Please model this.
Amino acid sequence: MRGIVVATLSILALGRPAVAQEAPAPSEDAGPVLDLEGLPDPAVGPAAPRSVGDVVDDRFDGRTDSRATLSDRAAAIIDKTTLGGYGEHEFHHGEDDITTFVNHRFVLFVYSQLHPRISTATEIEFEFAGSPLKRDGALEAGEVLLEFSVVDFEIAEWLVLRAGVILMPVGAYNLRHDAPTRDLVDRPLAYTTVLPTTWFESGAGLLGKIPLGDQRLSYEIYVVNGLDARLYDGSGLRGARGSHLQDNNPDKAIAGRLAYSPSLAFEVGASGYSGEYDLQDNRVNLGNLDLRWKLGPVELIGEVVRVWIDEGFVEGFSASSAANTRDAVPTDMWGFYGEADLHFTIAPLWALLPKDLQQATFTAVLRYEGKDTDLDRDSAQGDRRRLTMGLNFRPIEAFVLKTDYRLETEGTDDEEAAPEAWSGDFWTGARRARFSFAASVAYLF
Amino acid sequence: MFRPSALAKAALLTVLAAPVPAGADATYWTTPTLLKDFFRASKRVGYVKLITTQHAAALQARLGYVPRQAEHVIFVARTGDHIDGYAIVHDEQGQHEPITFGIKLGPDGRVERTEVMVYREGHGEEIREARFRKQFVGRGPGEPLRFEHEIDAISGATISSKSATLAVERALAVLAVARAEGPLKVAPTAQTARTP
Model:
């Protein structure tokens, strides 16, 4: 134990890498004479926050004063807290000609800086309008959930302590899943199942960024409760995530990601997860690689994920729980997607737009993807391939209208794998891809 | 003699004595500190104002829109009669809060340096990284400065990246419009500065 303490403190004692840009402290007398009389400084106006180095804001500190009125406390909190969020509302036209609007998600974002070194951030998600939602004529539970809720203590730019509901640092998509920042309506098949975005777990750990001149190295590593035994072909790890209340075993899982960015246009990341999923010491191990490469107006994005699971069964929940299906868990999964985005403008169209919308951009998207949530057997739910063509329009960066045109194949329960797009079966014959359409509007606020 | 407790104390003090991290919601530069750093070799820095309503057509022609700010302050650095450069400080809306930028322009009106003076957002502070800011260096008025074309966004800080692009584009246009009417004349004191 002493060794761990000493090692940790030794690491902390290392010299901090130079941050990209530190606030200087020029001498009052140095440099030119400034003739700025009567000119307000936007950097120190009433809307500006405290300066770096100011420990607390009296007004914010005053919210704990028992003599403060309710309005004083509210004003103090609002001064330090940013509210925001995003939403996405969809329309789907399925392969069976069923059409429906889907009020998919509305996420409220709350951020507050308690101190220059301490901040808290939370996303409160209302999925399918929260609870209840109506399905097959009956009201069922929707979802109101904290998928991300952390408090950070920033010792240095390269060393931040984080605890709470952790957005798992596994794969780039899980970390950057906000609908308005993505160019297609649907998330990749594998990244809702094999790697179940939005994947969140209760835990704690470290993160940081290390600028290396024009390059950057960043990391995140956490100890979390981790997945339980609800591992299935079809839904992958999705049912096993989200340990808000308690862990289902004494083991704590470890998850982490290391990302390297040699330039603004390129980033590669490697991430992983390892943890026991039951009381028999059986583990889930996961590895993921992600890549983002921007070549002028073209952006290439891709990820591949592989999961290895020790043989076991869906059990170990309380005796009365319907979750104890005793089904054998799949032991091997994988998935991938590759996406090319072309950002472009149509200059003649600008003349038709109001002047303040003339920064509008279009994005054409082509994505190919697949997943197999049980590599030992092919099935209709477990094996999928999908080709998506999309076109979206962003009049401003925080608002996007998306359309997806999808062709999708699946395996069969008779052990036939899903046809790939480069095979004739994808385009013709009894097992050809089925067409579906989706559109959405997504916005940040 | 090796004493872990002493090492522990030293390490902890080292960490706690570190400067406040460059986190969100922070002022990195005030206007005076920025101007003194921008124009270390100059003798004086004064300012002139460009009134938006008086130059709406010219600004519209360069930007495609008329800025909502009623006036734009242009700092002018001089050594004797020689103009060493210009600086413009203004706010651009981020995702939730305004971001205050400082842009230094050379005597030829080209961007020499950009700084984030105040960052108030929860996320996106990566726009302070030198590798992002240096994309603007050398850009001149009338040249394309399109987000996601000439300027690459920082992944995960897209809106802040676009805010920076718009801020620099507006600074270039404001200075170009002001200079189009001849050399900027700065009065001896700020109170008597006049619009070009």
Summary: Helices of chain A lie at 2-13, 58-61, 70-80, 172-175, 347-350, 424-427. Chain A touches chain B through 81 residues (CB under 8 Å). Residues 1-23, 46-59 of chain A have pLDDT under 50 and may be disordered.
